[in-house]
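FAQ: What does a ligand-bound record look like?

Like this one, built around zinc ion:
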Amino acid sequence: MGKWRTESCEQCGSDFYVREDWERPPRYCKPCREERAAKWYDKSCRHCGGTLRVCVEWDRIPDYHKECAWTEKPCEICGQGIRIHRGWDNPPRRHKECRESVAPKTASCAQCGHLFTISTGTQLRCKENGWGLPTRCPECKHDALLIKGAVGALRDTFRVPLETMIEKRGVFFTDKVAVVRNALNGDILAEVTMDKEGCFSTKRVAVATDARSGDEIARTREGCQGTFVSRRVAETYSSETGDQTHTTKMVEQGMLIRKRFAKTDPVNDVGGSIISRIVKRGWLFRKKVVETDRH
Ligand SMILES: [Zn+2]
Ligand SMILES: [Zn+2]
Ligand SMILES: [Zn+2]
Ligand SMILES: [Zn+2]
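The answer part, i.e. the structure of the complex:
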């Protein structure tokens, strides 16, 4: 039997007995030990469900084991891991640097020169699909289909292959002008300008005018097609009768190199489809020309 000796409690300082042969004598007296033990309790880890021993006096009571708290999720932009604490309400989905690399950008429109913003969403979509960033402002892009629709329909008015130059819209001229020529001899046949329609002047419309007589030939407006997935189409109406004559939509073709072109179909189905595609011309000064013909 070992001997007893006194030890002083680290918490309250009072003396208590310990046996001399105890390897690890208690540091606190019995009342203090009981008080301390009451402050500890078990809870279950929110990740693994295992036991987590915590003390009420801690400033922050953890919900996870240390080794359970952290996880890694792939960054939405670069795919590399991001360290995420399971307790975070809004865990980051992108690295900070990655996020900054796709912050909204200001670009100047290749067609009209106006500044426009390329949103983060657009940049991500381009990245995902391997596309280049848009070079035209939304308005020019929006007008392009209407202009192609107007030009496509003109193929049935003039009955010759057409060649159209889309002129740069100046800062002072808000109407984009397309000059439509006879592809065979270069004669100017018509002009297409952009205008606004409707009581609030919100709908943009492409107006085709005969270059010789100055008479309005047709108006091309935006329409929608499709039941489940609606797609933008351009609808051309004769200015003489007011009846719809053509519908134009963008079509993609090609396996490896996808080519986009506008396909204009006469409403009465006479004559078949008219194709308008952009080609680049010139060596020193490359110009974009829209070629329009039946194929
Ligand atoms: Zn004590
Ligand atoms: Zn755990
Ligand atoms: Zn990243
Ligand atoms: Zn523009």
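Follow-up question: can I read anything off the structure? Yes, for example: The chain has a mean pLDDT of 88.
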